[in-house]
């Protein structure tokens, strides 16, 4: 797809507009539920919540985010080898819809089945949509980066509106009514996708590398042995009360940490991957490892930053107290305003700044955000603080996110060997899963050290990772530019 056929939707093809609208509603459901999930988990049972400890709720929230990211890996495989990106997105949307409907049922027993369906569906939708956008502008990475940045806007519209709706309903009326609003958003998204089906023509219609005869049976057998049986054993132990929630979270967390290492080894040994592509993939591993540090910082938002907003921020506006979950809309508001600026900036900069330099800047900004957060925590020891503290923190995180997320997606699509696009995009989210899971586990430190010290630890992680990537950026840029059968760098010299 070279992007020549345009009709004026943000300068992109018509089918891009359909994906934009569908992703808007899918993200409305996701961010709407995420804005109230942690608050629901820690709320007293008398107030309709589950009464979890703050540490367990933070671990569960972080692990949920991690599994949403991690599910993109098998989802990307299914899109590449079995369904094709277009059908994978449809099937994922239906699963997410079913999951949100279960979460809307006013019974705690549906929490884990509902979250499980949302996780499975997200694993199909994320790489499916990204793979279709990734087909734009082959050979022109800077234009594809701009397209990904524009696509990122749909997420921000949803993330801005969703907490306002679900947060108000959940915190002031009933938690499950908030979950119900998220379910309604997903229903609208699926309807829009089906209505725009014909616009896609051949885009994502078939798998990039279809399965050979008999290969599906072998894959299903291996998957059942490697994942199905252990998952069933853990589930049975949890239901029987043999395994506590803490131990289940720990076991799943270990799987999340091991998965990217095992998958990368398998990818490097794949017969279809040539020597030059292995050089690029090894360099990409360093980029993805650095990105996981950013997602570790990002994972603090729906958990501890939400709790800080509830307990330590002056939320009064006259006689009205702003719901704590509404602060989750500050970050997407900045993203919505700054995404077009970032898209224009990447095109304007062209080959002058490579992807490693952009990642480095993103990590340094993320570390700076938590330096500010440490100051906010120190000030909160004297009483409730101004909401401007959190506004500044989210602004810095937004600037960092724009230098990591869309650039990382574009880079993953560019580095992917032929026939591996969906799985490479899934791998990007798998490293995000590592960061989110580690962030959830690290949140337990907040129970044993002062809040200001905890945020200084996070700041140190971001700043050190950003500085290390800056030092290695030249070497990484050269290795990412390596191409089979080509001795010259990519058109931008940055994301190849």
Tell me about this structure.
Helix content is 74%, strand content 1%. The chain is built from 16 helices and two strands. The protein has a two-stranded antiparallel ribbon with strand order 1-2. Helix 1 packs antiparallel against helix 7 and helix 2 runs parallel beside helix 5. The N terminus and C terminus are likely disordered.
Lay out the secondary structure.
Elements: H1 14-42, H2 54-70, H3 72-83, H4 85-104, H5 111-134, H6 141-172, H7 175-195, H8 215-240, H9 245-269, H10 275-298, H11 301-312, E1 316-317, E2 320-321, H12 330-349, H13 355-380, H14 388-415, H15 421-442, H16 451-480
Antiparallel strand pairs: 1-2
Helix pairs in contact: 1-2, 1-6, 1-7, 1-11, 2-5, 2-9, 2-15, 3-4, 3-5, 3-15, 4-5, 4-7, 5-15, 6-7, 6-12, 6-14, 9-15, 10-13, 10-14, 10-15, 10-16, 12-14, 13-14, 13-16, 14-15
What's the helix-strand series?
HHHHHHHHHHHEEHHHHH
Mean pLDDT: 80
What would the principal axes of the Cα set say about the shape? Answer: globular
Give the strand content. under 5%
Physical arrangement of strands within the biggest beta sheet? 1-2
What's the short version?
The protein has 496 residues and is mainly α. Helix content is 74%, strand content 1%.
Key descriptive features of the protein:
2 strands, disordered C terminus, globular, 16 helices, disordered N terminus, 496 residues, mainly alpha, two-stranded antiparallel sheet
């Amino acid at each position: 797809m070279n992007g020549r056929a345009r009709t004026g939707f943000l300068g992109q093809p018509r089918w891009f507009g359909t994906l934009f609208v569908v992703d808007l509603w899918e993200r409305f459901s996701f961010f709407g539920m995420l804005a109230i999930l942690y608050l629901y988990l820690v709320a007293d049972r008398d107030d309709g919540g589950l009464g979890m400890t703050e540490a367990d709720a933070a671990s569960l929230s972080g692990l949920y985010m991690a599994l949403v990211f991690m599910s993109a890996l098998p989802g990307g495989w299914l899109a590449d080898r079995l369904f094709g990106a277009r059908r994978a997105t449809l099937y994922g949307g239906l699963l997410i819809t079913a999951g949100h409907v279960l979460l809307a049922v006013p019974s705690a027993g549906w929490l884990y089945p509902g979250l499980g369906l949302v996780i499975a569906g997200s694993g199909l939708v994320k790489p499916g949509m990204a793979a279709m956008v990734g087909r734009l502008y082959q050979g022109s990475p800077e234009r594809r980066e701009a397209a990904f940045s524009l696509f990122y806007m749909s997420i921000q519209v949803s993330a801005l509106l969703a907490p306002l709706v679900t947060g108000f309903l959940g915190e002031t009326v009933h938690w499950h009514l908030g979950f119900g609003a998220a379910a309604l958003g997903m229903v609208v998204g699926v309807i829009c996708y089906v209505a725009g089906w014909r616009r896609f023509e051949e885009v994502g219609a078939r798998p990039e590398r279809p399965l050979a005869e008999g290969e599906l049976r072998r894959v299903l057998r291996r998957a059942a042995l490697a994942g199905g049986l252990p998952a069933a054993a853990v589930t049975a132990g949890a239901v029987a009360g043999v395994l506590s929630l803490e131990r289940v979270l720990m076991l799943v967390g270990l799987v999340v940490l091991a998965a990217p290492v095992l998958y990368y080894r398998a990818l490097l040994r794949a017969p279809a991957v040539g020597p030059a592509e292995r050089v690029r993939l090894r360099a990409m591993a360093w980029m993805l490892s650095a990105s996981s540090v950013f997602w570790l910082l990002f994972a603090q938002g729906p958990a501890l930053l939400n709790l800080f907003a509830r307990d330590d921020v002056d939320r009064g506006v006259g006689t009205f107290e702003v719901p704590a979950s509404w602060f989750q809309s500050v970050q997407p508001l900045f993203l919505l305003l700054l995404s077009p600026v970032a898209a224009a900036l990447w095109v304007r900069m062209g080959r002058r700044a490579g992807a490693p330099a952009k990642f480095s800047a993103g990590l340094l900004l993320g570390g700076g955000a938590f330096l500010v957060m440490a100051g906010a925590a120190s000030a909160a020891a004297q009483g409730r603080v101004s909401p401007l503290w959190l506004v500044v923190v989210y602004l810095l995180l937004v600037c960092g996110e724009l230098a990591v997320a869309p650039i990382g997606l574009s880079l993953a699509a560019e580095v992917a060997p032929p026939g591996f696009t969906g799985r490479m995009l899934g791998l990007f989210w798998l490293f995000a899963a590592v960061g989110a899971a580690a962030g959830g586990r690290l949140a337990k430190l907040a129970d044993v050290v002062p809040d200001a010290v905890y945020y200084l630890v996070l700041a140190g992680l971001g700043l050190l990772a950003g500085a290390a990537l800056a030092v290695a950026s030249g070497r990484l840029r050269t290795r990412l530019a390596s191409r089979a059968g080509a001795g010259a760098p990519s058109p931008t010299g940055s994301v190849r």
